[in-house]
């Protein structure tokens, strides 16, 4: 036996090593590495192409955000009508058959689809002005990203820190897992089963909590710096703006000098919720009666859904807290109270803007990943000269790696866009409160041009 770090055992006996090799599918891994190595130059080219596509998407939204959103609404209505008509044809076909399924289900599906399409049309008409406001906020976010290209380095540093810490956490996890004593239960894998003491279980959960907390802290720093840059940029617009202030430079200082403790506290809350959710799932998986009883399964799924919803709400609240802290310099809980007040006073605007922003970001990630991956697959499959002399046996292996990398890149860049949307929305709500308090015909001057017409509309600013 060969010991790695005095903990992980690798058998030197040929028969035992063959069992381990078969269990780990070493041949498949070797083939995957060989295919990736054969397409390494093409992979690099398409990764750069994916970055360019993502940046181009952000730039294009500055001019075509209105077209994109109205096109998405149009597609939703058309698909609702199409699926409703298709379900109605299924209903007619099932009604003409003497045997088979009841046609009532198809008719109900058609009615639901048509009602959904009709509801979309009615809501679009009723909230036409607010949809235009959401478009203006998205356009302003795109304008911020295009005018502050240096903001890209923030998620790049965050991604590098996340990868380094992930390697460290995995190494520590292997050490903790290897400290157990061999058990007496037989398994199909040749590694056996290990028994752990209470201290070792506690060490594992503590490592998991530290991982969640650290990841939440990295995300919090990333969001705080971007939100701080948006705050500075937002009030620089117009005649009275102080354009000599660099948004990114001042945000770094506010983050690490004045308000790092607030970010740590917000990350701690998210880490506690994440470890609670993980512990809850651990209890469910190790309690036989919970997995075999329908009532327990229903209660668990309801509780898991509530925990997930609360975690998502706290993530969004943290984003508003960071904007409020950048605006006023308040502490965490005081900023949380103000953030909740702003959200509760503007529920319809928050839901529409955040919903449309998330929809555009998700569509962008999927479309960029699919288009780059499909182009890469066709290139290395049908045009061998794109491999620059390399050999690829299975083109799916490098295509899968490229899809993962491009999706991560698209997620990193679209997250900047998403944080900018939420920050500008929060700042707009604050600006709207200022506009409501103004008397006479005084107009807004220190906001993005796309939002100025809404803030200067006295009737619209009085609406909740």
From TrEMBL:
Specify the protein's topology with respect to the membrane. Multi-pass membrane protein
| Gene Ontology molecular function: any one | transmembrane transporter activity
State which residue ranges cross the membrane: 41-61, 68-86, 106-128, 149-176, 205-235, 256-280, 400-421
Keywords linked to the UniProt accession: Glycoprotein, Membrane, Transmembrane, Transmembrane helix
Pfam families, per database record: Choline_transpo
Does the entry feature the keyword Transmembrane, yes or no?
Answer: yes
Give start-end ranges for the coiled-coil region(s). none
Q: Where in the cell is it found?
A: Cell membrane; Membrane
What does UniProt give as GO cellular component? Answer: membrane; plasma membrane
The Gene Ontology biological process annotation of the record reads: transmembrane transport
- InterPro entries, sorted: Choline_transptr-like
* Record's keyword annotation contains Membrane: yes
What is the similarity comment for this entry?
A: Belongs to the CTL (choline transporter-like) family.
What does the UniProt function comment say about this protein? Choline transporter.
Name it.
Answer: Choline transporter-like protein
Q: Which organism is it from?
A: Paramecium tetraurelia
């Amino acid at each position: 036996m060969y010991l790695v770090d005095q903990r992980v055992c690798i058998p030197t006996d040929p028969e035992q090593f063959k069992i381990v090799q078969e269990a780990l599918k070493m041949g498949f891994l070797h083939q995957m590495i060989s295919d990736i190595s054969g397409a390494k130059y093409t992979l690099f080219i398409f990764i750069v192409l994916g970055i360019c596509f993502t940046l181009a998407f952000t730039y294009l939204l500055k001019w075509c955000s209105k077209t994109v959103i109205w096109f998405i609404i149009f597609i939703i209505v058309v698909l609702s009508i199409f699926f409703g008509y298709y379900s109605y044809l299924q209903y007619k076909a099932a009604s003409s058959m003497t045997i088979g399924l009841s046609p009532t289900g198809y008719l109900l599906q058609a009615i639901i689809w048509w009602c959904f399409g009709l509801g979309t049309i009615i809501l679009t008409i009723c909230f036409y002005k607010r949809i235009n406001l959401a478009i203006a906020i998205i356009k302003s976010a795109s304008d911020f990203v295009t005018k502050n290209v240096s903001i890209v380095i923030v998620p790049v540093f965050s991604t590098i820190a996340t990868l380094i810490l992930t390697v460290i956490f995995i190494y520590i996890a292997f050490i903790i897992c290897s400290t157990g004593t061999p058990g007496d239960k037989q398994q199909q894998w040749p590694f056996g089963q290990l028994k752990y003491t209470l201290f070792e279980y506690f060490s594992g959960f503590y490592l998991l909590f530290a991982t969640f907390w650290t990841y939440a802290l990295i995300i919090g720093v990333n969001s705080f710096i971007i939100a701080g840059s948006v705050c500075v940029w937002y009030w620089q617009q117009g005649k009275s703006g102080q354009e000599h202030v660099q948004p990114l430079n001042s945000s770094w200082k506010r983050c690490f000098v004045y308000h790092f403790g607030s970010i740590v506290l917000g990350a701690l809350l998210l880490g506690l919720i994440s470890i609670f959710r993980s512990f809850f799932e651990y209890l469910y998986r190790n309690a036989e009666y919970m997995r075999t009883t329908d009532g327990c399964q229903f209660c668990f799924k309801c509780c898991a859904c509530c925990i997930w919803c609360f975690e998502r709400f706290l993530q969004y609240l943290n984003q508003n807290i960071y904007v409020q802290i950048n605006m006023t310099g308040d502490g965490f809980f005081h900023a949380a109270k103000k953030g909740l007040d702003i959200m509760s006073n503007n529920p319809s605007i928050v839901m529409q803007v955040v919903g449309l922003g998330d929809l555009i970001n998700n569509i962008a990630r999927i479309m960029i990943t699919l288009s780059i991956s499909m182009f890469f697959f066709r290139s290395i499959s049908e045009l061998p000269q794109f491999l620059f002399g390399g050999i690829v046996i299975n083109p799916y292996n490098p295509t899968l790696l490229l899809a993962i990398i491009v999706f991560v890149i698209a997620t990193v860049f679209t997250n900047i866009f998403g944080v900018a949307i939420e920050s500008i929305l929060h700042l707009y709500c604050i600006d709207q409160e200022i506009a409501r308090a103004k008397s006479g015909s005084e107009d807004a001057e220190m906001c993005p041009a796309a939002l100025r017409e809404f803030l200067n509309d006295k009737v619209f600013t009085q609406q909740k």
